[in-house]
Write a structure and sequence with these properties.
Length: 234
């Protein structure tokens, strides 16, 4: 093996280790178990705007975000886009396919230069049999996502656009952070898609919230929450 090959192997190993160790379904395992998982992992990189998978593609791998971010979205029959979630480092997609042979219903797109780690269904199923604790962690993650989906569905049916936007902004606040300034992780287009409205409506509602002195727009992506309590009870 050449020095270049050895160097690339070390870089790949470090990347795999970081990817695996940051994932909640794996980070409770010991070092030897981590090493075993890393042997099954494949790394891939994507440029901004590249699709990791599209609706209709065979779903047979668990995809973990190592660096960057992914936007998961679906398209309606009319072609309207609905943002489902945004995945950050340590988060994953494709877990349902690990239990049943299926196809993707959504699209996964890199929001920036993004690297992911992937584990095939066959490899992970062997790990699930050997380490049942991983199964429990996956079930916890699925339960959390189901809860989020139900909350989102309830918001669409019972809350106004203004209320959905206000709830989203309040959710960005970090509990143990004294600062009331939040950074929008989504573009205005993606934010509009996520809360089920248009970019124009998002701009108008942000202006209205500012006029009500509930928020203060510092820049296009930074907002100061002036009154969280009133924001949540619009």
């Amino acid at each position: 093996m050449t020095k270049k090959d050895q160097s690339e192997k070390r870089v790949c190993s470090v990347s795999h280790r970081g990817c695996v160790s940051m994932v909640p379904i794996f980070n409770h395992l010991d070092t030897l178990q981590m090493e075993e998982i890393m042997e099954t992992v494949q790394a891939h990189s994507f440029k901004r705007g590249e699709l990791i998978y599209r609706a209709g593609d065979t779903s047979d791998v668990l995809t973990i975000v190592n660096k960057g971010s992914l936007r998961i979205y679906r398209l309606s029959e009319s072609g309207k886009e609905q943002l489902v979630r945004v995945l950050k480092p340590g988060e994953f997609t494709g877990e349902l396919a690990l239990f049943n042979e299926t196809v993707h219903e959504n699209y996964a797109e890199a929001m920036e230069a993004t690297s992911v780690c992937q584990i095939t269904r066959a490899s992970l199923q062997k790990l699930l049999i050997k380490y049942p604790s991983i199964s429990l962690k996956i079930l916890q993650a699925l339960s959390s996502r189901l809860d989020e989906s139900e909350q989102q569905a309830a918001q669409f049916s019972t809350e106004s656009t203004e209320q959905r936007l206000a709830s989203y902004l309040a959710d960005l606040l970090v509990e143990d952070d004294q600062s009331a300034i939040v950074t929008l992780p989504l573009t205005k287009k993606d934010l509009a898609s996520y809360i089920g409205t248009t970019p124009e409506t998002v701009s108008r509602k942000l202006k209205e919230l500012e006029e009500m002195q509930l928020i203060r727009r510092i820049s296009s992506s930074k907002i100061e929450i002036l009154d969280e309590e009133k924001l949540l009870f619009l």
